Amino acid sequence: xxxxxxxxxxxxxxxxxxxxxxxxxxxxxxxxxxxxxxxxxxxxxxxxxxxxxxxxxxxxxxxxxxxxxxxxxxxxxxxxxxxxxxxxxxxxxxxxxxxxxxxxxxxxxxxxxxxxxxxxxxxxxxxxxxxxxxxxxxxxxxxxxxxxxxxxxxxxxxxxxxxxxxxxxxxxxxxxxxxxxxxxxxxxxxxxxxxxxxxxxxxxxxxxxxxxxxxxxxxxxxxxxxxxxxxxxxxxxxxxxxxxxxxxxxxxxxxxxxxxxxxxxxxxxxxxxxxxxxxxxxxxxxxxxxxxxxxxxxxxxxxxxxxxxxxxxxxxxxxxxxxxxxxxxxxxxxxxxxxxxxxxxxxxxxxxxxxxxxxxxxxxxxxxxxxxxxxxxxxxxxxxxxxxxxxxxxxxxxxxxxxxxxxxxxxxxxxxxxxxxxxxxxxxxxxxxxxxxxxxxxxxxxxxxxxxxxxxxxxxxxxxxxxxxxxxxxxxxxxxxxxxxxxxxxxxxxxxxxxxxxxxxxxxxxxxxxxxxxxxxxxxxxxxxxxxxxxxxxxxxxxxxxxxxxxxxxxxxxxxxxxxxxxxxxxxxxxxxx
Amino acid sequence: xxxxxxxxxxxxxxxxxxxxxxxxxxxxxxxxxxxxxxxxxxxxxxxxxxxxxxxxxxxxxxxxxxxxxxxxxxxxxxxxxxxxxxxxxxxxxxxxxxxxxxxxxxxxxxxxxxxxxxxxxxxxxxxxxxxxxxxxxxxxxxxxxxxxxxxxxxxxxxxxxxxxxxxxxxxx
Lengths: 578, 172
Ligand SMILES: Cc1ncc(C[n+]2csc(CCOP(=O)(O)OP(=O)(O)O)c2C)c(N)n1
What we know:
The structure holds two protein chains of two kinds. By secondary structure, chain A is an alpha/beta fold.
């Protein structure tokens, strides 16, 4: 094989085309995109690519399950804001990615997924390890490509990164038949992309922005409702500037946490099913709701017909298909949130809706998030507070899915965007631990904690081998209630305490499991052991697993039951009113 | 209510599946679909007829517009438009009924394109009303088979995809 000079500039601009195999072009294109790392797993169809990776100077993290690779790539993208890359083989390798791709799609995360496929001549014949992965992922990718001609590869990769990371971000998949990866091509990395059907709108319509400013100036009970779009857009400073200029209380979705500091006097915390009383009441009573990169998800709105019934709605989103999808927008603004807010801030007059802020402060004082410690038990909420204390409140924390996910969202008090990483739209168990690995790879030097359930951890704990082999210093805190806790909570509240198949008391010994992988593990069963154990984990130079046995039947409150409205909220004071 | 969507797409494999998937995932049935290249061989036009409430059609149309391979989406139902469909109808015809059928055919300015001792094949082109009318008149004779192209439609007036005059309402 002709040795290729790996460099940042090969083929760029009008440089002379370089003859190389498509597998080499794949690596070179990633380097031209500034990609640092691939999360992947080999197999027959991608062996030609792995043969190139053998000598290429690009980092590759070998996972233990392709789903782990997909979630790691997402964790990386969510923590860094840069598009991530994931690589898997054909057939089972590709189908193992599907949950991860769906998760990235639901939360608008820029990941470029590469899959191998059987040779072009065999495609469609049910060949060994063939799967129609472009067909399978049609509804869960922003776009996907089946590359049948190797000469298209540089253009396709260039387009894929552009599509994944611009407009409303999202996953893009590129399927590479095996013969395509060994074909020789003249490599030039295209400088520009030209996709006639893809022109996101970035600047908001000025007339609409003026109308929005006018509405804000007139509002007596305004609320800013901030979602994950604010993270993607990098609009946290603008959100803060707008909120402070007009003294707008800020409610965040699960995906929006961290955009606005939790300890800011204008913060209402999270809204929705397990949101704060103040956030939900404020939205319920407000006369103006300013939705910023949020999509009125049912976990936020509950019963749509009773959501924000008195509010005029301003909806700012880069995706026109989100406008008026669930809630009709009175003032729709399509554009990039950061740019729209910059224009909007100028037009908004400083003000202070005194009575409204006073009302909200009263709610916040009367109904703070709270729980009731019990003797001899470690309260799960206390664990989150203790992790906050140990990490000084500025760790990157990933959640899995379930009760612990809600407690993390409620009790960590996130202060910066991209520090809270959670599977929001899909709610995919197994996400948290690999996502933390990806975040740690992307943010060396940051403290990264995986707050997980005993159920969810078991969906991807094989990645302990990955943290061990690269010594990735992720700290895992298993909030172990020996239950599928959130399922148990619903069964307790809505199914007569029929704990049908949600009891996990036959859990394995997680400390021994960690140790079997060569990772330090420690069990915590008493409150007084908690802080020292967390400190030991934080100090330890490398991965660490804490198996923290918490109160088994604690519930997440407040709660608006699914499909209900604010009036049906229970547990306002942190437990069921008797 | 029936809506006619006119969708300009890049002529690529998979684009039909992408568009159709946005209807099927919401459980809406496409009543007819006609696809063909435009004056530009890289660009195809799909004319899709769907029966759904306005709000749903609007949502689907916005999502269709989001597809990377889609260039333009237009709901012709809100415009003044011309629509045509071509239908082949194989109808039972005995020596006794043949002349009656041929009268109907000539009233509708349709054509007989095949004759056998027991049937005729009628070719008819027209808008929805005309097609419905001839079908209902031929039905009593016994329709053995019917093939329809699906409706094609075009906005009236001087407007074109390139030109800007009298630009009809474009969704998203
Ligand atoms: C892949 C997947 N399967 C099932 C579910 C349904 N589910 C949601 S929360 C939950 C329980 C999670 O239990 P655990 O991981 O122990 O966390 P806890 O709720 O106890 O904090 C389940 C089964 C899911 N979200 N994802």
